[in-house]
Specification:
The protein is mostly helical. 74% of the residues lie in helices and 0% in strands. The chain has three helices and no strands.
């Protein structure tokens, strides 16, 4: 991933997922909904941070590594 999202963009992403989160929360007890909603949003943020930290090779780097392994 070349560009990490800013905090505002990440919050916009979570806001765009909010209707789906709310709909899914209807399947849980009323008392647990607020806690579960916060936990879901926290997991989204944690997952994004893990994915953003991954440094994958671009296509040219991948091909170079692939062909160098083929020659061995």
């Amino acid at each position: 991933m070349d560009k990490k999202l800013s905090k505002e963009e990440l919050l916009d992403l979570i806001d765009s997922l909010n209707p789906k989160i709310k709909k899914s929360l209807k399947n849980t007890n009323y008392q647990d909904r607020n806690d579960l909603e916060q936990e879901i949003k926290l997991k989204i943020i944690e997952s994004y941070e893990k994915i953003a930290a991954i440094e994958a090779p671009n296509f040219e780097e991948f091909l170079a590594e692939f062909f160098s392994k083929q020659k061995q």
